[in-house]
Amino acid sequence: MIDQRTKKLTVLDQIASSDMVRRKIIDAAAVLYAKKGFTATSIEEIAELAGVTLPVAYHYVKKKSEIMRMIMEDVLNTFRSSLIKEIKEKDIEDPEEKLAIATILYFRVVDQQREKALLIYQKSSSLDKPSKKKVMQLEVEVSKIFSEIIEEGIKKGIFKEVDVDLMAYNIIMMAHMWVLKRWHFKHRLTLDKFINLQLEAVMDLLRKR
Questions:
Q1: Is residue 96 scored above 90 in pLDDT?
Q2: Residue ranges covered by each domain of the chain
Q3: Is the domain covering 1-62 a CATH 1.10.10.60 domain?
Q4: For residues 143 and 172, is the Cβ–Cβ distance under 8 A?
Q5: Under 8 Å CB-to-CB from 53, ≥6 apart: which residues?
Q6: What CATH number does the domain located at 64-209 have?
Q7: 8: which DSSP letter?
Q8: What residues form DSSP beta bridges with 207?
Q9: How many Å apart are CA 33 and CA 70, to the nearest integer?
């Protein structure tokens, strides 16, 4: 349980609740990176804000670049688990409906975690080579989710022949546009309107005439 006097996880929780500790470290790191910058933030500060001991923090991360990888994994896993749950619960077979759900979910996940997504854009160049490679690999995994749905639609004759990889990345970049250029679009578009307009553009490019 959490010690209500200090608002920190007890040692027992830190050992037993790995998912909760991981989440606290990721969220604390995102806040500090956004506020102070990647270079100026120490793992000690991340541990303190997360409410975990330094040895426990080092159990999860040996260096700050690993936290950036964890942030990317978190965005990907949130999207993937939400999508699988949505498709299974609604028993969706139609590729067009699958793609619409996947696109809407990805846009929403990116918006909900836009500070983390922005950090990935801003700081990925400062990562060490193995961490940078992992972040790139995770992004490719996101694109594969869209690619598989588009390929299914092409095989079923619902979508026309397109460059599948390019189309998948177009969808990803549309979502990232909301994060990078939200300062511009938020004055005239809600998130829902932005998603609807982008989804219409995607479907218009894919549907057979």
A1: yes
A2: 1-62, 64-209
A3: yes
A4: yes
A5: 11, 14, 47
A6: 1.10.357.10
A7: E
A8: 159
A9: 14
Q: How far is Cα 196 from Cα 193, in angstroms, rounded to an integer?
A: 5
Read off the pLDDT band of 7 (50, 70, 90). Answer: very low
Q: How many helices (H) and strands (E) does the chain have?
A: 11, 2
Residue type, 124: S
> Do 75 and 109 form a contact (C-beta atoms < 8 A)?
yes
pTM of the full structure? 0.76
SS3 3: strand
Tell me the three state secondary structure of residue 2.
Answer: strand
Cα distance between residue 8 and residue 24, in whole Å = 10
Instruction: Report the DSSP beta bridge partners of residue 3.
Output: 8
At 114, list the tokens. 């836009």
Classified as helix, coil or strand, 51 is coil
